[in-house]
Specification:
single chain; 594 residues; alpha+beta; Ribosomal Protein S8, Chain: A, domain 1; 7-stranded antiparallel sheet; 6-stranded antiparallel sheet
């Protein structure tokens, strides 16, 4: 980027600098190559996700444990560790204290450490904060103790604590914090957290601030520290040592997060629709013609005979039978236009023109036998994995399919010297394919999710004819439609009389209205956060057959098969639906993944 900026600056002063132009071209080519590599990586990762989505979810197993990362100690930590080992190495043969002050105890212990230390330097022991705290005297007697063990006994009996640093051991009262080390911090609280803090606080000051130290019972507040809550702004002001401030911040973050989760309980619904389809088609038919022969089998090219059919012209091919008489319908759960165009309709893909074989009688009148035979198998696998985020108690809808518009009302347009027409007035949108409505309900007490599931499969079954209007013949200068004829038989009698008893034929206007098939299931289940429920049983198998034959001849044993056309088509489908529910916090993280 810096090189590009440099050469662009050169071109700004010299627009025809060949060197700058050359280097800018090389920079652009290098950036293009880098972006192409990044594009290839992204594309590969996306296809890996698609391939992995085909694998059905497994039962939740044991998660691998976290790998511990070794901590590299700092120089100060190494020196403090060496000082601790030194205290553990100094052995005190005998030591006795009787109602001794902590200052006296520390001085004597320091002298013993200096005396018994092999190097002769001893250990630096320093006491802080005893002037503001009343400490009990120390009384104990021991033999063959290390300096570290003696230090543990002394601090426990006197209500003190010690901290081993790089060069000294500091002893302080348990709740002591130096004033110069205290810091101040402000915390914004959720209203619900502020209400809980008010209930567990001590008292209200003259300034309207509430003393909130009682809310943090496990966190010490030494002299000079404070915790004041402003209920008007839900603001907490705290003064304490840095480590205690960190504990307070962690506790308040926990309460704020819990309150936020209660307000915005969300569930991510991950769905996976897997449909596997398989079909087979068998067809064998015969057609006899006479009068115009095709070519002989030994010719360079073979033509289809064009003579008159001997018996009937109603024997159908497989394509005609399945596409017209029986009807192939539509996909039971076609996911979308892309899937339908990419995989093709399994029904339509099976039906095709059969292979044809000609057998010609050589002598006499040209008689040809046309044999149509077809055997085909086809299959398609469709996968769709949408996901949606919804609040607890709210219904989420997932539609994988098509939305089609169909007219529900028509207007009849009648014009002189023109054919009447139908103009749609209102339309209705119908969703076909798979619809899934999910209503999650979180149970914060036991961490489960209750799911109200309503999967629905809608497919177009066909069309019905609907009478939407009647067109009457034209009389004089007027054309009468169905509304004009609705007066009843008087109008018809009048028209009949005017036409001298000529029969009046009315034209019916017919519109095709769609018919849908629906399969729907409603159920309620309870699962753990992050678990998956599988819904199956949406299996469909369709068998279609046709059998056309020449009367009498088609029933003759053995030979009658030459006068019949038969076919069979089977389509099997299996649809599996997997639903995974994950509780998601307001920041978008899944609770189960934490």
């Amino acid at each position: 980027d810096r090189a590009q900026q440099f050469f662009e600056a050169v071109l700004y002063t010299d627009a025809y600098n060949k060197t700058a132009i050359k280097w800018l071209q090389r920079i652009a080519a290098k950036k293009t190559g880098r972006e192409l590599k990044s594009y290839g990586t992204t594309r590969t990762c996306m296809f890996e996700e698609v391939q992995a989505a085909w694998n059905t979810p497994k039962a939740e197993g044991e998660q691998p444990g976290a790998v511990a990362v070794e901590h590299e100690p700092t120089p100060d930590e190494l020196r403090a560790q060496a000082l601790r080992e030194k205290l553990a190495a100094i052995q005190i043969p005998a030591i006795t204290f009787q109602d001794a002050d902590i200052q006296q105890v520390v001085l004597e212990l320091s002298a013993l450490c200096r005396k018994l230390d092999g190097g002769g330097r001893g250990v630096n022991l320093v006491v802080f904060g005893t002037s503001e705290t009343l400490l009990p005297p120390v009384t104990f007697s021991g033999t063959d103790l290390s300096a570290l063990e003696t230090l543990d006994i002394i601090t426990q009996m006197s209500g003190m604590k010690y901290d081993i640093g790089p060069s000294m051991v500091s002893l302080t009262p348990v709740n002591y914090e130096p004033q110069q080390q205290m810091v101040s911090a402000e915390f914004d609280l959720m209203p619900s957290v502020g209400s809980k803090l008010m209930l567990r606080s001590d008292s209200e000051t003259a300034t309207g601030l509430v003393d909130a130290r009682g809310f943090f019972g496990s966190i010490p507040f030494p002299a000079g520290s404070s915790a004041q809550f402003n209920p008007e702004f839900n603001l907490l002001l705290v003064r304490n040592s840095p480590k205690h401030i960190d504990r307070i911040e962690a506790l308040l973050s926990h309460y704020n997060k819990k309150a936020l989760d209660e307000r915005s309980r969300q569930v991510e619904i991950e769905t996976k629709f897997i449909e596997v389809a398989e079909g087979a088609l068998d067809e064998l038919g015969f057609e006899w013609t006479i009068g115009e022969a095709g070519t002989y089998l030994n010719s360079d090219t073979i033509s289809i005979p064009g003579g008159q059919k001997m018996f009937t012209d109603t024997l159908r091919t497989g394509a005609e039978a399945f596409n017209s008489s029986v009807g192939t319908g539509s996909r039971a759960s076609s996911f979308n236009n892309y899937a339908s165009s990419a995989a093709g309709s399994l029904d339509d893909g099976l039906v095709d023109t059969a292979g044809e074989l000609l057998i010609q009688k050589v002598t006499g009148t040209p008689v040809d036998l046309l044999i149509r035979a077809l055997e085909r198998q086809a299959g398609s696998d469709l996968l769709s994995a949408p996901r949606v985020l919804t609040k607890s108690g709210e219904t989420a809808s997932i539609h994988v399919g098509e939305t089609r518009s169909f007219p529900t009302a028509y207007d009849v347009i009648i014009e002189r010297y023109a054919q009447p027409s139908l103009v749609p007035l209102d339309y209705e949108q119908v969703k076909t394919g798979v619809m899934l409505e999910v209503t999650p309900e979180l149970d914060p007490e036991n961490g489960t999710i209750e799911l109200d599931l309503a999967p629905e499969i809608t497919e177009l079954a066909g069309y019905d004819e609907q009478h939407v209007g009647t067109i009457w013949p034209e009389f004089g200068d007027e054309a009468l439609d169905m509304d004009s004829a609705s007066a009843g038989s008087d109008l018809l009698d009048f028209l009949t009389a005017r036409e001298e008893n000529r029969t009046i034929n009315a034209d019916r206007l017919i519109a095709r209205q769609p018919v849908f098939k629906t399969r729907k299931v409603e159920t309620t289940v309870t699962i753990e956060d992050g678990s998956t429920i599988a819904m199956g049983g949406l299996i469909k198998e369709k068998l279609e057959t046709f059998k056309d034959s020449v009367p009498i001849l088609g029933k003759i044993p053995l030979i009658g098969r030459l006068f019949r056309s038969e076919g069979e088509k089977t389509v099997k489908r299996n649809l599996l639906i997997f639903v995974t529910a994950n509780q998601v916090d307001a920041t978008g993280y899944k609770k189960a993944a934490k």
